[in-house]
Amino acid sequence: MAIITWQKAAIAFAGILVIGIFALVIVDGTFLHKQYLEPWAEDYHEQFEDPRVQALAHGVLAPNSHNLQSWRVVLEGEDSFFLYVDTDRLSPKADPPGRQATVTQGTFLEYVRIAAEELGYEAEIELFPDGEYGPDGSPENVGSKPVARVSLKEASTEARGALESRETGGSISALYPVMFLPDTYRVPYREIKLQQEDVEKLEALSTENVTIVIYQEAEDVEKLGDIAYRAAEVEAGNSGVQEEGSELFRPNEWEKNKFRYGFTMEGQGLSPFKVHVLQGLLSLFPSMNSPEAAGDSFLSQAKTAVENTPAYALIITEGNSRTAQVESGILYSRFLLTASDMGYVMQPLSQATEEYPEMAGMYKEIHEEYAGEGETIQMLMRIGVPEKEVPPTMRLDVMDIIEG
Questions:
Q1: Which CATH architecture has domain 37-181+392-403?
Q2: Could you give the CA distance from residue 54 to residue 153 in angstroms, rounded to a whole number?
């Protein structure tokens, strides 16, 4: 009788387990087609006839602040478009002046330029054709003027010859294939310093107004890691920023397909199985994603990051004009893609550069330590060789950002 009772109990437990797993699968949407990953396909752009849309289809892959993808495009004529900040996707708590949203416009422009080059066009980019918008981060301000006017012209014979002379692996631009790799790695990095030759090549990407500086000496790595972690503590303790982040978190496949922007479980080195289980639990128990829980998780990730980082890099501009912000985004994309082509990955840890009141002390400290008079640190990022690969993140359909 005891054996039969235990057998029945085991069967009942197995049944409950199966029902529980089935429930997690249903609420997570595990078997849904991942529409939010479609733009990462290398042939995604081929479904569009307009070369501008083809180039823009690559632009949505660009790294961007808080994965908000705050780009809005207005087509003009037959070969041009205007790029605006999409004011429906901003992060006013973490980015009150809209600086990070403006940097994001630059990352997009560089991806579009590289894609246009690959497609046989030259992208003529005019920044702020109607003048810069002001320093205020309100939607009314940052959305009031175009960030850029971009025209695509078929590359001349001379230009095509110059491009083809740089052909690598069948691609006109050596950086083009790298655009389809994940842009952010939040996993631990190996204890391997960058090759000095690579450091010199990466720092040489600096322009007249925007500078890249790489730090991998022990003293600087420790100091910048300490700044990054203490800034993360400030951010984790800021209820407004954490609430904003919680609202952008997509807990399951249903919401990822619906919104296609914001934060997800991916990118932290978790197996697909663990991701789906956690997503199912978060869907069933939303309180697991409270601002407090999100803050604790964010701080834990920051601690792991700074303890497993061999080098940091800063992007620094002369002044802090809107043009400088866009140019820093352009340079960041170029830096990211060039480093990726060398086998390195990176993750922005730019909390200390944010400009909300509670971060003022950290902002002052990092500038006093690493910026000269009149300079602005636009980005701080960790760089290295990852211990494991990560999947790509959500991306909007290109038609979601286009008007006209």
A1: 3-Layer(aba) Sandwich (3.40)
A2: 14
Any idea which residue has 């080195």 for tokens?
269
| Integer Cα distance of 80 and 11 in angstroms | 66
User: Which pTM was predicted?
Assistant: 0.91
User: What whole-number distance in Å separates Cα of residue 76 and Cα of residue 194?
Assistant: 44
What number does CATH give the domain 196-384?
3.40.109.10
Residues 130-163 have pLDDT tens digits of 999 999 999 999 999 999 999 999 987 655 555 5
One-letter-per-residue 3-state SS of the chain = CHHHHHHHHHHHHHHHHHHHHHHHHHHHCCCCCCHHHHHHCCCHHHHCCCHHHHHHHHHCCCCCHHHCCCEEEEEECCCEEEEEECCCCCCCCCCCCCHHHHHHHHHHHHHHHHHHHHCCEEEEEEECCCCCCCCCCCHHHHCCCCCEEEEEEECCHHHHHHHHCCCECCECCCCCHHHHCCCCCCCCECCCCCCHHHHHHHHCCCCCCEEEEEECCHHHHHHHHHHHHHHHHHHHCCHHHHHHHHHCECCCHHHHHHHCCCECCCCCCCCHHHHHHHHHHHHHCHHHHCHHHHHHHHHHHHHHHHHCCCEEEEEEEECCCHHHHHHHHHHHHHHHHHHHHHCCEEEECHHHHCCCHHHHHHHHHHHHHHCCCCEEEEEEEEEECECCCCCCCCCCCHHHHEEC
Pairing relationship of beta strands 210-215 and 402-403 according to DSSP bridges = unpaired
pLDDT in tens, 219-247: 999 999 999 999 999 999 999 999 999 89
Alpha-carbon span 314 to 20, nearest angstrom? 47
